[in-house]
């Protein structure tokens, strides 16, 4: 491509980017906090939805029971928790409390897990020549087990080799969830490979989860290490 054509293409990209920026409507929906924990005798808790944008927002909030099977997260409609209000309208700058209400006492010896699905709804009459982004939040909600003082995660760590791939496999035999983040794999020679700088995922009580490692199966070996943050605490785990 000759220089004049290259400059013309670059100019077109710049003009397209300017038009894009002028025709995108960013949403202002914010949710706080981003996780909830209800104690054994606690009947309700709440989250705040705030519209920090310049346009009115319509949103829907639903709740699902959260389980993990076959190394996958599974969500199903829940009757244990209810939401009030489930539908809302927020003017610019407005704030609304969403109540999360339990419908009965905890009967489980393990922590129960749920997800709040907060969905911004697209406008009924979108503005012409505007691209409207709508946001979705998935908020973890945990209910502490009844009459159990040892509310902690008890994790077992291993490497599983499947074909050419190596996987980190984590089992939780405790009574509470484990939140895993900021994970790096360190081989026997001390070479480090980042798995993720942010959230890796959760392991619920009684569940086993699996994540692919950034190494081939042939390159993973006993004696390697995992540097990872578990429930906010940084640790180094032998594999």
From TrEMBL:
- Gene Ontology annotations of biological process type: cell wall organization
Q: Which UniProt keywords apply?
A: Signal
Name the GO cellular-component terms. Answer: outer membrane-bounded periplasmic space
**InterPro entries per record:** Ig-like_fold, PapD-like_sf, Periplasmic_pilus_chap, Pili_assmbl_chaperone_N
Ranges of residues in domain Pili assembly chaperone N-terminal: 28-147
Signal sequence, start to end: 1-26
**Which Gene3D superfamilies does this UniProt record tie to the protein?**
Immunoglobulins
**Which ranges does the record mark as transmembrane?**
none
Q: Which Pfam families match?
A: PapD_N (PF00345)
Protein's name in the database: Molecular chaperone
Q: Which organism is it from?
A: Buttiauxella warmboldiae
